Each structure stands twice: as C-alpha cells, then as structure tokens.
Amino acid sequence: MKFENLNLIEPILKALAQEGYKTPSPIQEQAIPHALEGKDILGCAQTGTGKTAAFAIPIIQKIHVQGSKGSKRQVQSLILTPTRELAVQIEESFRSYGRYTNLKYCSIFGGVSQSPQTEKLRRGVDVLVATPGRLNDLINQRQVNLSNVSMFVLDEADRMLDMGFINDVKKIISCIPKKRQTLFFSATMPKEITELVNSILVDPVKVAVTPVSSTVDKIEQYVYFVDKGNKKKLLVHLLNNKDIDSALVFTRTKHEADKVEKDLTANKIAAQAIHGDKSQSARQMALNNFKTGKIRVLVATDIAARGIDIDELSHVINYNLPNISETYVHRIGRTGRAGLGGTSISFCEYEEKEYLKSIQKLIKKIIPTAEENPYPMLITSVLPKTDKPQRAKVAKKTEAELSWKNKSSKKKDSYSVNKKKDSSKKSYSKYASEKYQ
Ligand code: AMP
User: Fold this and answer.
1) Which atom of ligand 1 is nearest to the CA of 19?
2) Bridge-partner residues for 369, per DSSP?
3) Which atom of ligand 1 is least distant from the CA of 45?
4) Residues 135 and 44 both lie in one domain
C-alpha cells in the first residue's frame, strides 16, 4: 500500500514524501479512507503508531478541499489532547503535513500567557489543538468560537481520564456542534472511556493496531540482574560510558524519577526528570534540553513519557521493569526509530523476575543477559525470603569465599570490582541469571 492509493491530494503527497514517509503505517492505512469519507472513528492506538498523521492528513485534506467559509477563518477542526507537549507536537505535525496548503493552525495550553494564543485565535485559524483546561478557560471568557467545528479529535482519551480531565472534556464536547465527525483515540478502553465512546460516537469504524512490537527486532536488548540497592550505582556506571549519546530512563514512580535525577546530577551526569507533578513549563524545558543535547539523560515515568516524540534516541533504560509487558514494548520502541539502531537496557531486581518472564513471553524472545555487570545480583537475593537457614548459610559461604578472594588477590574491596576479575561474583551472577531465564 502506498499513500498514492489513499486518494490524497498532491500537496499532502508532496509533504509526506518530504517527511520521508514511504508507506502508510497500519493505522493510517485503516483510518484515512474512512476519515476522508466523514465516518466516525474509534482508534485503539498509542503514540508511535503514526496516529497523528492518521487524523491530521484527512483533516487537512478536507479543509483544503472545502476551503474556508466566510471572510474570516473559523475553527473547523478541534483536537483535544492531554498535555502541552502533545499539543505542540500535534501542531508541528499539522504544519509539516500541511506545508503545501495554506491552512492556519493554533495550539493552546496552560502554563503560559494566554494573550499570544487569543491574538492568534482573533486572526482566525482552521485547526485548533488544545489541552482541556486552557480551552475551557478561553470558552468561559468567550475568546474562542467553536460553533463551526465539524471535525473533532479526542486524542489519548484514557490519559485524559488518568489526569482527571474527563469532566473538562465533557464540558467542551457540549460546546461543539452535535452534527460533526468525531475521531476518537485511546490506547486502552477502561469503563468510563467506553461510556464516553458510546455517548459521542455514531456508528464508528473501529481501528485497532497492535503496538510497536515489529520495531522490537531492530533494537538490541540486554538485561542486568542487579539488586535493588545497586541499581543507582549500575546506572551511573553505565552512563559514564560516553557511547550512550542519549538515554531515556524509565522509573515506575514519580518519586523514583526525582531520586534518579538527583543521583545522576550528584554524579555529574546531566539529567532531568519529567513526570505528572512537574509544571508544564518544567517538563517542556527538560524535553527541549534533551532534544537539543543540553542534557544527555531524561528520566521519566510512563505516563509523562507517553506523548514524547524523540526521533534520535540511542538508549532506553528500564530502571524498573514495568508490570505490564506491553509497556516494555512501548518503552523500548522509543529508540530504534527512523531506521536508526537502538539499545534497550533493563535492570531486573529479584522482585521483577515475573515481569521479565511475561515480557519475554510477549516479545517471544529471551533478552540476553549483559556480560559486563559490575554489580551482579548476589545469590542471597535469589533465595526466597522465607528460606532463612539457607540464606544464612549461603551468606556465610559468600563471605568466606569473598574474604578468601580478597586475601588471595590482596584487594580490600572486592564487592565493587568488575565481574571479569571476580570469579566468585561471576558465578553468583550467572546463577542468578540462570534462575531467571
Ligand atoms: P505518532 O504515533 O503520530 O506519534 O507518530 C510516531 C512517529 O512516527 C513520528 O515521529 C512520525 O513522524 C512517524 N511517522 C508517522 N507516520 C509515518 C509513516 N507513514 N512513515 C514513517 N514514519 C511515520
């Protein structure tokens, strides 16, 4: 399938060629023809699948073909998205795909002065990309007219729910005409989202794409078996290797993201964290610093990272393994984009071994264990906590072996040496790894 087969107009085909897009992604192939026909769409897809172009291309084409009504441009399409980062990225995508049309775009979001946004609206726009909070403010102030909206996109609906925006969203929907086309995107379909779908979509075409698993093959993957308490040291050790050009480090919690940022900064590794508790401007600044190379490491939670679009990312590091295997696929799909290679490194502590198992089942491959691990998991952590006698016995043996090793090598601290030089640790690590695989 080619873009030419989707009945797209020349200015869009030209822009897509310039973007370097050769073939439509599955969601584009499935959604664009229906969207051009004016059908409602229910898309089950996440960032990374090409969903932005799947809704942006038909919107640009329809507005370009129909032309603007009246002397002043009116908002004909409204795109609601949960975060400022996404709003900016979506507007950028519209500008790229529509560069050979003369449509006008505007994105509005909170955390910045509203006057440049209202000024743009006053001059007239065709496509408005907005986050719910700021849009509601502007609706209340009568700064925006949505009475001509005929194409409405609700992007990342489940995330709107997560972030507590669902009532704002419903309020906005009540302000746009009932007679319209709705394109609805959500990665998951919790109950509240299904209810919303049923109330705002009319006979939708359902389009679902499996996440990025195909890209997984292009990515080199490694796992380090490491004790929880040593993850910090292992991360610093790895990032001291300058071969890692840029790394997105995933943590499970916001608190952990902050801690990792602090640890790295204390070790003179330029890093910033983004998560839901950070202000929009702090998040945007961290993202810009990362994109421009000011910082080499961005630490993020899954929710905060979901909308981030970074084309050239050399490494993804899973500081914690996710408990949902698909999340692993999404995380590592951040690297290896645009035909470039990528590496994914996962830290697996004892409690995460079940997560690793399910991830390997999903991706249908065993993730190789990293060979050079200066902080291998110690054998005691592999034994069940309840097996106290055995743990004590092994711990004693470990101590004895290590002290023998220390004496024989005349080294004081053998706990922090490289695995290659420490045969006793090597065997523990090997044992730990084997237990996991
Ligand atoms: P999205 O899921 O919309 O966030 O898109 C993810 C990434 O895929 C973006 O960097 C897009 O530029 C890129 N992309 C979208 N569609 C295509 C395509 N048909 N071919 C190649 N790259 C694409």
Assistant:
1) 12
2) 223
3) 2
4) yes
